[in-house]
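Now for one protein, fold included:
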Amino acid sequence: MSPVDATFYPLIITGRDHSLFRQPPQGTDMGALRIVPATEVRPGDWVLGEYEGALDSLRLHTVMQSCACFPALPAAVNGMVALDGESLVWEAAELVLVILRECIPAGTYGDRSTGYRVGDRVERSMIYEPIHDDHRDKIGVPRPVIQRGTVEAVEDGVPVVEWDGRWVNGRTAETAMRLVDPARVDQERRTYGLAVGDTVAGDNAAEGVVLEMWLHWYDGTPMARVYWPGSPWSNYCRYDFAEARRFSRAMPAHAA
């Protein structure tokens, strides 16, 4: 095999979106890193990336931080694992680099090891079973989504949560939840003008709740799914799948 000349160019990073690619929590003992299968990541463990190669007790062959460092909220569906509660990008047997939740410094974002508090904005993972075929969903192909809510009370150490909106054909994958990340909410509003859990107004006087948002696969148009509750005397409710710009935030908008 003939040699190939390689040219190296210096790379200078002048800006990085730290709201997406956060560093491990300050004060973390990096000696606490562990490599575990995706199916063994627990809620509250912090995910740093994936591990490539066979396990070797003497050294790490390759460690790649290919995703943001975040507290895990695992949901398994379709033979995959959504470690962040909504993105099906991890295979069940894939090896993941984590910091165990027991090793996270006190006061870290997402740490409520001493219990949740009234007023906390929290989120959990839901498994949505689509009831229609469209550009977003396919019947028979469930997918994980994030649902947000507010802790209304704490009874005997157990938080009572008022969840935003309603997911028809939705089921919880775990009883676990985590704090809503304010940086994530800011990012959503920069991208879509809205955030999951926001109260919004549409073309009429009714108010709905944003359940999820995404960029349309065809042209990147910001889209939103909005839940419109039924009237007090009717169980009827409806959902809109429309461009996010059609909706405007109404008060009160949740502050994460």
